[in-house]
Amino acid sequence: MAKSVHAGSVWGTVVGAVLLASCSSAPVSKNSLEAPQTGVQSELAESDKADNNGSVPAEAAKAKPQLIKRANMTLRVEKVTSALQAVAKVVKAQQGDVVGLQDQVPPDASIRHVASMELRIPQAKLESTLEQLAQLGTVQNRSIEAEDVSTQLVDFQARLKNLRKSEEVVLKIMDRSGSVADVLKVSQELKTIRQEIEQINAQLKRLQAQVAYSKVNLSIEAAIATTPPQASMGERLQEAWSQSTHAVVNITLSLLGLLVWVLVFFPYLIGVGLIAFLAKRFTK
Fold it and tell me: How far apart are CA 275 and CA 268, in angstroms?
């Protein structure tokens, strides 16, 4: 009987730890505050209550807004190829990276040359980078969008902190557990907590990377589509001769084909003519 009571107490402590980790940001009801808490549950509750006394909101209020910035710019330049090289130099000098490039080389000079680049720039150097890029040509359009993710970052950090506390509690419970059934149950809860820690940690790092580095979509286009060079007189005469001889060959082949058709159907034509002649003669 004592063994089953111990197992129930251990399992209840594990569930309490997990619930405190997942619901730490939710408001605590009056009944839950009055419910008796034992051992680790009481310790977690006191720690969670101390964390929710306003320290996190106060830090969030004082902290600088965490913004994800995205910029778009279209440049018109004299030569796209040389502009692409100049952009790469600017990005490298600003400690950024070129993460995407699409260069649509036209088949001839009568079509406008267009290219696009995706840049990754440290947010602190975004404005200076855009100014240097603007000097490479004529700016057709330019825009910057910002998204404040301060609340999301604070929320992820708080959840991660509480989950790590729960992980420590569950590890202590695992050390005190005696039966195999208790160890298996605690191990499953520990696995669940660690999976949540990995997921939230990955989301937190992704947001922090987006805040640290801004994305710039840069479009580059040639100033004008140049007129293709005119062909010389000799080239024009050669082209006219080629077209005329080609036309003569086509006409000759067409006439020969018609002649073949006439020869093939000539007996039928004679028969039809003979029948018409005889019919006309007998009708008189």
Answer: 11
Could you give the dihedral angle defined by the CA atoms of residues 213, 219, 222 and 223, in that order, rounded to the nearest 10 degrees? -100
Instruction: Please state the pTM of the whole predicted model.
Output: 0.55
Tokens coding 187: 């191990």
User: d(Cα 144, Cα 141) in Å, to the nearest integer?
Assistant: 11
Per-residue pLDDT of 148-174, as tens digits, reads: 999 999 999 999 999 999 888 888 887
* Side-chain-side CA neighbours of residue 171 (13 Å): 8
- Section 217-241 average pLDDT: 76
List 1's β-bridge partners, or say none: none
